[in-house]
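Aim 2 progress update. The chain analyzed this quarter is reproduced below.
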Amino acid sequence: MNILVFDIETIPDTRSGGRLYELAELSDDDIAKAMVAKQVQKTGDSDFLPLHLHKIVAISAVLRTGDALKVWSLGTADSPESDLITRFYDGIDRYSPTLVSWNGGGFDLPVLHYRSLLNNVVAKRYWDNGDGEREFRFNNYLSRYHWRHVDLMDVLAGFNLRAAAPLNQIAIMLGFPGKLGMSGATVWSTYQAGGIEEIRQYCETDALNTYLVYLKWELIRGKFSKGQYDQECEKVRALLKSSNQTHFNEFLTAWNNASSALSSAQSKC
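Predicted structure tokens:
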């Protein structure tokens, strides 16, 4: 089975915001501020923009296929949004993977839907609900309760939004690194400062955290034995050790420290 864990990072879609709110003469920064202000005015407290007003600047993935494991960000730092989205759906066409996300059903996939509409990106297999392949009628990417897309946040919460938990806290609770150095709230300012590579690296570590939680989920639902789970974790460690990329080395160090802290805490129970 092919597994594709994914995560996206977004910024305000100032081009659409400028048109929708007749602010096109303003700078991107001022349009973004106006968009946020309008959202706070509308909701009373939340500055989180509607999903259709998010522009994708990074898509990162962990791909487990056969004996191979790969972690990367799609495209390059200069790739346009349309290229990132096209590459994502091309991967689904090629591998027909089980998609794994954290809040992908509530955020990542709806954003991808809206941005696909805007960028005219065709994704035939992703949207198939049985018209193209009969088996997709009973198990497709679109149904909340099918398994071609596993939204771990949704599944672990029992499909109860009130029980949903942040990825960062669950990762740390389980002895994984959690977020390192950035958060979604700082992506826009980092992007404005020219830090797209930093954003892509942050997105990769989020995908890695999600993959590690996924491995633990496979263990508790009996798909992995303890030995198989340990082997899969060692495969991740080996990949990180073989990398010469700083953020992967930092992730491995943080993972080792978090695992030691968890083991120490459990030994005192």
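The two ends are 38 Å apart (CA to CA). Residues 3-267 form a domain with the Nucleotidyltransferase; domain 5 fold (CATH 3.30.420.10). These observations will guide the mutagenesis experiments scheduled for the next reporting period.
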